[in-house]
Amino acid sequence: MAHEPLTQEDVLLEGFLALDTPEGFRAELIEGEIVVTPPPDGDHEDYIGLIVTQVVRGSRTDMQFSGNKGLKLKSGGSCPKNHAIPDGTFAPTRLRLYRGADPWMPCEGVALILEVTSTRPHADREAKRRCYARGSIPLYLLVDREASSITLFSTPERDDYREQCTRPLGKPLSLPAPFDFDLDTADFL
Questions:
Q1: What is the DSSP string of 61-94?
Q2: Contact present, 134 and 76 (Cβ < 8 Å)
Q3: Mean pLDDT of 126-143
Q4: How many CA atoms are closer than 13 Å to the CA of 69, on its beta-carbon side?
Q5: Which end of the chain is more exposed for a tag (fewer CB within 10 A), N or C?
Q6: Which residues pair with 150 in a beta bridge?
Q7: What pLDDT, in 10s, does the model give residues 87-100?
């Protein structure tokens, strides 16, 4: 029985899904590039913890959080489907998105993605932003440690977000519905 030849995208995706990364490392497939990142430092995790605590306490909608959840996102151009692992994923608790989800789940229902820059800040600022917009994820929150700023990207349209609001760390940042509260970044300094 004849088989269809594998495309370059098929080979890349198959190779990516077969990767066995060292403990603590994570591998992502972002716009046709396999990216392997080492475990994060303590400051990186501190930012995430501060945000999660505020969302749990301040959000108008009860939110469920997942750290390092694999998401399948639409492809860009001739790339295979993107497979990203955000630092944090928030979804309304009532949806129970994570229950029974595969290691790589679809992104429908996700309310906000959180990234904190680390070893590859350009990927968080550019490539991952485009991936999340293609996935129609309504909000993307980026803590940029190099720039000492926090940015909320909103209103995804095709390959990017139409709106963004950047504040220096130390200043509050308003999170819209379904969160509806001001994120306090005073402790981020």
A1: S-EEEESS-EEEE---TTSPPEEE--SEEEEEGG
A2: yes
A3: 95
A4: 23
A5: N
A6: 143, 167
A7: 999 999 999 999 99
Question: Residue type for 137, please?
Answer: I
Query: What torsion do the CA atoms of 49, 52, 54, 55 make, to the nearest 10 degrees?
Result: 170
Residue 82: per-residue pLDDT: 87
Is residue 171 over pLDDT 60? yes
CB 175 within 8 Å of CB 167:
no
Tokens of 61: 């909608």
DSSP 4: P
Kindly tell me the sign of the dihedral angle through the C-alpha atoms of 49, 51, 57, 60. Answer: negative
With CA atoms as reference, report the closest residue to 90 among 128, 56, 117: 56
Q: How far is CA 105 from CA 15, 73, 186, 187, 188, in A?
A: 18, 9, 34, 33, 31
Q: Tell whether the model's pLDDT for residue 78 goes beyond 70.
A: no
Q: Are the C-beta atoms of 34 and 27 separated by less than 8 Å?
A: yes
When pLDDT is cut at 50, 70 and 90, the band that residue 180 belongs to is very high
d(CA 181, CA 76): 33
Is there a contact between 188 and 53 (Cβ–Cβ < 8 Å)? no
Q: What would the pLDDT profile of 64-75 be if each residue is shown by its tens digit?
A: 999 989 999 987
